[in-house]
């Protein structure tokens, strides 16, 4: 596929084989084509590895950070559980939102919390709202530990951002979805893998082996959850109807009720 952008004629042409489709450059459809490529090339160039939140690196697209903020503000969870801690930026993000809202705790699970990351997370002023659990997110003793710690919370939201294979995410969904309270979410992040499978850093098997597939399988097995195409947007004064810039497509599973 070729994209031909003519800024003087204000057109974007998509050429597939012999078929050429011309779009006005300043249109939602042209923005969608540009956004898809921006996400794809940006993923390959590790654009998401250029951000931090209150001093800790956060490996997320800013657009997804905005959406998760909107969801946390709407749900007002008193417990956020995340698998996949890395440098801790996303834990600090959730803790900062809960701190601003005056209530709530965060549990972060990672198979390996490197000593320099642990030291920095534990030294952060928001660590008072965070519990770290070290071990594989699907190991029965780790799942049991998190379940024990989650007991008694009233509004629980879960984000899965650890090992992104379909099999691992499927196991995480089964382990942690029972903790999610009605109206809240379990989010299988990084379904972007399907879209970037053919990039230089991607792998062909990712077209099927990815978190979105695990979320779709889970939704088919669990009618108590609905897989949303994207999270609700509390504000939208544009004509755009899709969230075009995200690494979390087919990710948001809402517990019904
Ligand atoms: C993409 S990073 C997490 C990024 C982080 N959530 C953020 O937004 O900055 C993935 C993390 O998952 C962890 N991980 C990989 N396999 C895991 C497993 N089986 N259980 C728990 N954590 C795992 C890795 O050690 C790594 O720190």
The radius of gyration computed from the alpha-carbon positions, rounded to a whole number of angstroms, is 19 Å
Number of continuous helical runs: 7
Ions, cofactors, ligands: which are bound?
Answer: S-adenosylmethionine
Which H/E pattern describes the elements?
A: EEEHEEHEHEHEHEHEHEE
The beta-strand count equals 12
Q: What would the CATH topology of the largest domain be?
A: Rossmann fold
The figure for the number of domains is: 2
Helical residue percent? 25-40%
Main pleated-sheet profile: 7 strands, mixed
**Biggest sheet, spatial arrangement of strands:** 8-7-6-9-10-12-11
Bin the strand percentage.
15-25%
The name of the CATH architecture of the largest domain is 3-Layer(aba) Sandwich
Distance between the termini: 44 Å
Shape: globular
Name the CATH superfamily classification of the largest domain.
Answer: Vaccinia Virus protein VP39
Q: Helix/strand-derived class?
A: alpha/beta
| Mean pLDDT over all positions | 97
* CATH class annotation of the largest domain: Alpha Beta
Ranges where pLDDT stays below 50 over 5 or more residues in a row are: none
Provide tags for this entry.
single chain; 257 residues; alpha/beta; Rossmann fold; 2 domains; 7-stranded mixed β-sheet; 3-stranded antiparallel β-sheet; 7 helices; 12 strands; 33% helix; 21% strand; binds S-adenosylmethionine
């Amino acid at each position: 596929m070729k994209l031909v952008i003519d800024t003087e004629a204000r057109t974007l042409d998509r050429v597939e084989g012999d078929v050429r489709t011309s779009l006005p450059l300043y249109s939602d459809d042209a923005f969608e084509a540009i956004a898809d490529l921006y996400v794809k090339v940006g993923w390959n160039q590790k654009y998401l590895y250029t951000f931090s939140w209150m001093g800790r690196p956060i490996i997320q697209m800013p657009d997804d950070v905005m959406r998760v903020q909107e969801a946390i503000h709407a749900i007002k969870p008193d417990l956020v559980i995340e698998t996949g801690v890395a440098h801790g930026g996303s834990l600090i993000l959730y803790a900062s939102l809960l701190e601003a809202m005056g209530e709530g705790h965060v549990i972060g699970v990672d198979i390996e919390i490197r000593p320099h990351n642990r030291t920095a997370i534990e030294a952060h002023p928001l660590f008072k709202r965070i519990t770290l659990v070290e071990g594989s997110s699907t190991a029965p003793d780790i799942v049991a530990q998190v379940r024990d710690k989650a007991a008694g919370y009233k509004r629980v939201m879960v984000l899965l951002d650890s090992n992104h294979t379909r099999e691992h995410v499927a196991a995480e969904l089964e382990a942690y979805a029972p903790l999610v309270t009605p109206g809240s979410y379990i989010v299988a992040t990084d379904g972007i893998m399907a879209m970037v499978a053919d990039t230089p850093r991607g792998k062909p098997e990712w077209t099927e082996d990815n978190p979105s597939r695990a979320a779709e399988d889970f939704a088919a097995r669990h009618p108590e959850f609905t897989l949303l195409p994207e999270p609700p947007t509390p504000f939208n004064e544009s004509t755009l109807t899709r969230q075009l810039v995200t690494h979390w497509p087919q990710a948001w599973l809402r517990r019904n009720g």
